[in-house]
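TL;DR need structure tokens for one chain.
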Amino acid sequence: MKSLIDLPEMPNEFLPYNRNDKNDVIKVLSMQIGKYKRQGMLDGFEDIDMAFMALLIDAGFNENQIIEAFRLVYLNDFNFEITLNMYERTIARINNAEQIRGAGSFISKIKESGLDNIEIFVKQLSIKEKSASQDQSNYSTCVESQPLIESLLKWNDIWNLDVNIEYILEGLIPLGSIILLFGRGGIGKTSLCMQFARAIASGKVFWGLKTIKTPVYYIDFENPLAILKERAEKIGKTDNLFVWHISNKIPPPRLDSNEWEQYKQLPIGLLIIDTLRAAHLSDENDSRQMALIMQRLKELRELGFTIILLHHTPKGNENTYKGSTVILDLADHILGLEEVKKGDDRVEFSGDNYYKLGVRIKTRFNPFSISLKYNPDIKGFDIAQQVQQEDDFTKIYNLIVDLKNIKEELPIQSEIIAKAIKELKLGDKKIRALLNAGEGKYWNSTKMPERNNSRVFELITDAVDPLDSDIDINEAQATDEPIKNTSLSVCQPIGGYKLTNSHKTKSQGLETSINKGLDKEFEFVSQSLFPDEPKTNYF
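>> reply
TL;DR here they are.
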């Protein structure tokens, strides 16, 4: 960075400087004070020089630093002997505990003069210098007198913290996290993320999912501007989405370059990096090199950024991402975009193709998936209604399983509805329609006189491929009467461990493993779209 001493005589408050470097801050502050003194805006304050000097001494600056600061205040009028004499007198008065019109008076004067920008610099000095010395002092005291265990958080204190997991796109994008979104080249990751970006930047509901309005920065290392223009025309306008393109006068810095900290200058928001591979020149298979990049992304996360990294899959394997395991270890949330294959007669980029977007391999948050269809008109994605209905069926199925395990008896309709409203956030009418539409395929129901003639539900254990199902929820009426049909079932999208009965049910897409001991069985269940899909880890 260019030396501040060589800059113009009267800089403004937007002069580039490092806010974390006390020497930069004091130089800019001194030049600002000099400017206002020459304009007569600090007249009428008899001890302005000594007050400024007392402020600097109070902030922890030494003799040489203070003399250089006064050189910048007075420029050609600077007098070394007068400044040194003033420094010695100020130090003597401080040491003798004599009253001095110091930092407090200085702040009062600049407030009276309306010099808000000067006050900003003074506060930066005071905060940085005093907090640093206080932190060191507190740390030393802690080391000397406080047992380490007393400085640790207690579990119950964490339990009482007023913090909650939030999503800037419901279920899919956790706020303040590093998300890796992988998929084969050309599957539509860029289009998908541009749709995300516009929805989040606008704060609009997207695919029925809530968003938190957030500034979005699309960091584009790959796409031609003509492609960006076409996507923008198809997706729609928004004022809160910024594109940092490689054609920019200041191009986006690579993550392994010395300029990467430029990202810290952006207001906090969502960073979408397209793609991770193009955002660095390192070896993505080298754990040490990728650890450096991921650590830098963690720094941005700790500042408050949410980060999405678009990434590719290795050749011949669409079920995982390319590169070092460090990427997996240091990311918080892994999403996969994959096509649901439906035979050999499929046509690429056809509106008949189905896709699944959801958590894969790892998450620190909650598992979530959504079914999509390619929309050629926008070169993007829409909700696949038929497949999404199947997702609702699996949620109800799982909910019935839970109720049965908790109550150790078949659940009744009112219990299912109450639990679904609370946990699945579905409406009463839709839940009743789902229960009737799934009758005979996923569960059977009967009215039991001994339970006040309530309708009780028993699950069917045979499996069916959701995409081959011909259920149409729109044709199912919300009624209490059961609908008889053929016996079919569905996989359960569960993630985690639960206490099970002494038997397990095998069904397509249901992966289970039993750990037996002390007459108890625990079952880990995770959704699997394809037989060879790896399990998802939740931690």
